[in-house]
Batch of 3 targets.
Target 1
Amino acid sequence: MSSLFADPSILLVEPSAMQAKVVSKAFRELGMDRIRTAENGWGALAEMREVRPEVVVSALYLPDMSGLDLVLAMREETDLAGIPFILVSSETRPQALDPVRQAGICGLLPKPFTTAQLRKVLDTTLDFLALEHTTSIDFRAEELKVLLVDDSGSARRFMRRMLENLGITNFIEAENGRKAVELLAGTMVDLVVTDYNMPEMDGQALVQHIRQHSWQKDVPILMVTSEADASRLAAVEAAGVSGICDKPFEASVVSDLLGRLLANRE
């Protein structure tokens, strides 16, 4: 774990007092003692606005909204948009979890979770926080123009925040592959970051179009996706994607991928 954030301030959103004690105890066993709690989504938002936490940990089902509603509300507020969000849930259905992954979360913990699972998610989250203090990277971030392609505005905002932590400031955005194709026809970019599952034109079709028909066919393409089907991901790799990263993404993995993808383009 990053020593800079070895004990981050945590807001735990959990309607069950018993579950809140279990989760808090697990965090404290890893040396994290700065934990506040909220029983519902609106209370959590009020807590965040009063004292901004460094990490939010939330159940999926809350009495007044869902964990998805909570993270979407956070991403809409400038002061809360960049807070890492960890979901704790016994839910396993993709139709329930995929929208939360798409919304831009740092980690997903099963309920119940093991110490090893908690440690892994915390490592990812603390890496994300530490990126805000990164001042030396292997590519000229301030000179890059990045195209973000995702049908979720919340996911685009979260990815943008993560890339801004690396020093990238120049972005254009598209809500699907077809819009991205239109933008690429007239705008030079240094990197495309795209989702897989999108309406109009999905990520695989976008990669194929860029590699076969675009005047920017050599541009690096990073796919950040919750897609788990191995055959679909293999098809994306065959189409010419430069790198694939899971949703929720590990910030250090994205940083390393970008370093490798862009180091030779200086």
Target 2
Amino acid sequence: MKPMTAVSPQPVPDRVAIITHPALAAAPAEAERISASLRQAGLGCVLWGPYSDQKLRQRVASGGFDLLIALGGDGTMLRTGHLAAPLGIPVLGVNLGRFGFLMELQPEQWDERLPDLLAGRYWLEERMLLTAGHVRGEEWIGRWDVINDVVVTRGQYVRPIGLEVRVDGQLLARYVADGLIAATPTGSSAYALAAGGPILPPELRNILIVPVAPHLSLDRAVILSEGASVSIQPFSEHEVVFSVDGQAAVHLQPGDRVQVVHNPASVRFVRFQDRGYFYRNITKYMEQNPAAGDFNDSGNANH
């Protein structure tokens, strides 16, 4: 990064990668516009590409950048966060999606915030990560960083599954449900919220356990103490799968379990707004859910 001046509270980025959603038609032109502004401002290295670009991903993993810009929606923010978090690289979100709850800027705000970025006038919000493990016997056969949630759920058969949940080795509950969510505070406003869980402020470092459609089981969310370890083991005869942050499902064999533990790394989001932004956004998105469309009084969508 460029040297900080005495008045700069944060480092000034010099090497920036813009990560786009490959299916968004507006993304290439917007990425070019942002890239041109950054180059004109004198940054040493600016590249952009979709998160499916393996060469760009490898360059990020090699430590070639000191800021990533996620250009898309919340899904793009999550994928970019997965690239950035292990390296401690900050992520700035520019929204091109429908929801954009995690994003910091709208496209029309980029130019006005560029001087603040290049003067170090921003703050870094550090959000908790989890580690999810696919465990068979005593061996971890898969491991994932988690920004939002781990969801253990039924597979192809439309029937409840049985899940035994242990916290720090002690039995919490045996659920019969459609599934179970283990979420970070970031994930508490995603699927966990839709399943009836509480909203946790982003600075907390607790795991949230939320059952999905429980049947004659514990039907309340449980907030675990910081640093807790969670084991989720199916006891159903039919198919059970799990997914991390909405990625491809992983099939569990009989006897397998999902282990969810604290991750020492954090994902770092660039923020220009004051620290009360989270509560303002919650109110805004609850009152005008952009994912639901615009409905008139008869329940029909206005287009």
Target 3
Amino acid sequence: MAELRLKSSRFRAEREADWARLEAMLAKAERRSAAALTDDELIAMPVLYRAALSSLSVARATSLDQNMIDYLEGLATRAYFFVYGARASGFERVTRFFGRDWPAAARSTWRETLLCWALTLVGTFVALALTLRDPVWFAAFVPGKLAQGRGPEASAAALRATLFGKPAIDGLSVFATFLFTNNAGVALMAFALGFAFGVPTALLEIYNGCMLGGFLAVFITHGLGYEAGGWLAIHGVTEIFAVVLAGAAGMRISRALAFPGERTRLDSLALEGRRAAVLMAGVLVMLFCAAILEGVGRQMIQSTEIRYAIGAASGVIWLTFLYLPRRRAPAASNGGALG
């Protein structure tokens, strides 16, 4: 370990002046515009950017200090958007977002994502156990406005009707729009609460699981647990995954605030904020898909088995899309963006 720290210190000492110069130019351009840079700085920018990429490649290959790797990834990402961003067309930016940036942002927050999944599951099982034991707990977990008559006092026939009823086709698009707006609000709140050092975000993830557990308990006590699982699966896999990712983005912000590492707290927040913003853009895409599945697919598909199949398929699709390892693009083209 001592040898590794010495190697890391020497590596930084030999190159830190170039990194500092590149960071100063980027900060100058970000505060004002590219026009604020001198001709010499404009000429030096691509050279320093490629030097930073080279340093990043060496740091990754030799497993140097992780904080240094994170710093260089952030620096290379900022420089990449300055050097190449203006040349990308709208189609190229969209392709890059879906093909690299969004999955990279999700992979970079895998620890926070696992934590948010754990918090959600804890809330689900606690609320499920308490409500099964005493139905009075249902009111503590599920607001009356959200329950809409699907509480312990409802009959089995009434609950079954909520699972398999067919609303008017004309109202499905309106319903989907309402669900998208509601779920997006929950996800954005989970993200925004990360600025309070993550504690409210954690509580929101737990509470989201509590609502799920309370609902499931009611249907289980009426002999409709299997059917309710399919009713939730068709859209819930995507929806809950999106809220979990939003919470993970918020947790990443809180981590930057609480543990900035060798960067200043402001610089750490700026770097993690950009990553979190990319992830939140993807969350909105997932919530849109969930709203369509909930407002249209779930209402039109009455088979519980097909609902489970669609839920399972959506989970596999999201996991594959976000976490399947991708071949790293050449350094000159990807700028080491987000790793």
